[in-house]
Amino acid sequence: MKLFVSTLLFLASLSSLHAQGPLRPNPDRRLPPAQGQPPTGIRKPIGTIVRPQGMDAPQPIINTSSLLKVNVTFQAHNMQIPWQKEGASGRRGLGVVLPDNRVLVTAQMVSDATYIELELPESGQKMPAKVQAVDYEANLAVLAPNSATKEMAFFSGLKGMEVDTSARIGDALSVWQTGRVGELIVTPMRISKVMTQSYVVDNAAFLVYEATGIIRTEANSFTLPVVKGGKLAALLLRYDSKNQVATLVPAPIIDHFLKDVADGKYDGFPSLGVEFQITLDEQFREYLDIKVDQPGVYISTVMKGGSADKAGVKKGDILIAINGSTIDSRGDYQDQQFGAVSVSHIVRGRSFVGDDVEMKVVREGKEIVLKSQLTRKQPDDYLVRPYLFDKGPKYVLSGGMLFQELTRPYLNSFGGEQQGGPILRLQRIASTPDEFEKDGRKKIIFLSAILPTPSTQGYERMSGQVVEEVNGKKITQLADVAAALKEPKDGLHIVKLREFPFVLHLDALKVEKDNLQLMNGMFRVSGLSRLE
Amino acid sequence: MNYRLLLPTLALLCGVPFLSRAAEEAPTASQAIDLTTGEWDSVVNIDCSVLMPDYREPWNAGQPSGGSGTGFLIGKNRFLTNAHVVSNATKLVIRTTNDPQPHPARIVFVAHDCDLAIIEAEDGAPFEKLKPLTFGGIPKLNTELIAVGYPIGGDRISVTRGIVSRIDFRPFSHTQVDSHLAIQVDAAINPGNSGGPVLQNGKVVGVAFQGFNGRVAQNVGYIIPVPVIQRFLKDVSDGHYDHYVDIAITDFAVENSAQKKALQLGDDGIGVMIADVEPAGSVGKILKRGDVLLSMDGNPVLNNGLIRFEGELMDMNEVVERKFAGDKLKLLYQRDGKKQEVEVVLSRFDPYVKLGSQYNQRPRYLVYAGLVFQPMDRDLVDAHQIRDPATNYLFDNYLTDKLYVERPEPVLLTTVLTDEVNTHITMYAQSVVDEINGMKIKSLKDVKEALSKKDVKESFVVIKLLEKGRPLVLKRDLAEAAHPRIMQTYNISEDAYLGTE
Hints:
- The structure holds 2 protein chains of 2 kinds.
- By secondary structure, chain A is of the alpha+beta class.
- Helices cover about 20% and strands about 30% of the residues of chain A.
- Chain A contains 12 helices and 28 strands.
- Chain B is built from 9 helices and 29 strands.
- Chain B has helices at about 85, 225-235, 255-260, 315-320, 380-385, 390-395, 405, 445-450, 475-490; strands at about 5, 45-50, 65-75, 80, 90-95, 105-110, 115-120, 145-150, 160-170, 180-185, 195-200, 205-210, 220-225, 250, 270-275, 290-295, 300, 305-310, 310-315, 330-335, 340-345, 365-370, 370-375, 410-415, 430-435, 440, 460-465, 470-475, 495.
- Chain B starts with a strand and ends with a strand.
- At the A-B interface, strand 13, helix 5, strand 14, helix 9 and strand 26 of A face helix 3, strand 15, helix 6 and strand 28 of B.
């Protein structure tokens, strides 16, 4: 039964790996629950070694002392009904054993985890674990055992794997998987391309290796290690089975992450905070007074408060070098190891938060050098949070009015298809935050739904309006709503909206009554707000 | 949109209208019809050849197509039919059930907003002896009626029978943006019935015009009722059609006790909140958001926006519906608890026309060095299947966010016809044009003017797009040299059509 369940799981999780483009934050939501599948017949698991008849010697089984099975139970928050959680579900993957009894997995593996355990592949021995550090942008996490008493014995036969950052285009690597009883299954891959792209969340691009080869489907499809000469060269990010192309989180990013974790304070990967445009268009170059053989890219956006902004970079500057590396018209620099790679890797992959950065720009025909220290834009620094894991979405529920903070996961919860009306409008706010930030807003607060109660009579069908004011107080973040609702005027709450119908009035006494009813009545709301 | 229009077509394109033929006087229930008397000859089949405008290659004449529908005689050589039966027509032919002769015809008046048209035979003589049909009123619920016309299923005149199922304000699918009074019937209304009379006791009580796709709903057909028809006839009686007028406000029902208190309303059920006012509409400078509308022409408006009109509860817009451009409307409204009365002059509200389908119009465009500029409207957005998020936002929120105030006629860079001169900017197709050479673009005509202006750097044409990271720049001399070459290569005979005005 267990085997059968594993087979199901691996098929389902693999299908999410096949998806082209960045994986959704919870690609495995549709996985069947790990427990309770009825057995429907005995099946040999794929990967079982069948001994050929007539051979006397037993089949040698190779094991590795650097891989663990990792089992995670997770439960995502419901973005649209923020006090609820979705059904719990499971993920199975592999973890790479690091020195000091730590285990490396992808962040996707542990997102929204409610229980994490490590399992020895051969003996099946298990022990609980916790997340020591996680970075959802870099899609990496370090796990630590959660039981000091069992730790020594559990890790005694294991050996930490080293990270090897030396892989180059053309190098042969191998993907490691474990079979049913812990036997090592090795399949070859070859790096064909090195480039930058986003991993599982869309707000930051990182270095990836693209490797070609066939990855067989096994029971533990998350976090497959990719190895060069016995050392860790990458982790599998996604696999396109149609083209047999694997996208890998490369060792330079893993190494950066582990070094950052090692000092006990995790800072994350720095960013420059600019968007740029390529300058291959000769007429555009001439317009910008860029000489024919001069490199550089056109800075089209400078994010407020970012590293480039602090250095004094302006929209319209031509960025020609960073830290001494020349930038070409496509925005690439020549990396000694990988050849032409996007300049973002100099900052994100090769530098740390707090490092000095030196940018050379051309402004009005003159070269100038600008300097600052690299910073990182934290997810909470965005007007519209780019991702949200492990925590529930913020909300205030009052009378039946559900106020929420606009986040990408909320928008994504409506699916990828273009939505008209309110969702399209909110999506546009998320993609053009400038004018709202100028307005003094820290977050976009909107009415996501109105629950039918006596105090919301007539308003039940409202949804998706941005909140401007509550009881005369300007709303710049969710805490403002909670505070303003404490001060009704003449027994009324007045909620001003950016869209039709522009204003809602509610009876403050009825709202209080309804709040009690919302908690104790049919809706069984567990709390009227989540502000942290 | 689940509605379909009821015209058949040659089906060169999908979605052509249907027409059928037949006409007659109204018999009472179950009375046999004798076609040999000729009295049904006043219900005619209208055969229509059309050119479907090509919004992707706007310099082309368009795709030939056709369809057939129904019309009926309402006066001397005057046939009433649906606008959608004769839209984009290049040739019209009338046939009657007993006369094998085709009679060439032409449009006299067309009103797309209420889907009605009047056509005439080029030679009216053959129809002189026919008796025009006469109009009744609004039929009562559950009373019988018959639909006469030339629907799909045969060539001869057809009659179907049913009852009045509902009388309501409904969207008219021809433009996709207009709503008027409509009568729902369960008589079979099929492609080809469009424009045909629906009769009760021998009098016309409506014109068959739309229904649901059979997969969506059964036995639901809609007819345009007499008040809408008579409004159209009255509007054109001065020789031209002036379009509906609109008060251009959005009401929000008062159901909540706190809302009632805040708006200082009594318990008499009177008064609806004005949630939004279009600044360019008839009352844009008079009413404000949060006002309460108490009555129209002395007729009390109820809390839910309904009004008692001719004995029936109807949407308050019905009062405005019956009026004409330049007519006055008396409004009683309340602001901050104070009642005020005002008389407003009603006018047409233009911005929303762009959000609907338009007909009998040649697509406007301007080509410059392979860059194709076109004004944004529904036909354009549909034809190009726009994916650019800024463009979609602009179209979707053109009214709701009052974007028409800043950009009365947004202009899109729809296509880049690739040439050496523009090959680096082909990926910017489908963007909204914000400025050209420093001039804000508010209409297609602005593009022409702006292109001839000199930017700070005179030797360049600089095009700023909405929400794109960089301006598009073309060297003026290169662009002007490339222009005739591109026109020839892509088979474009005229580099612009800016409209007739």
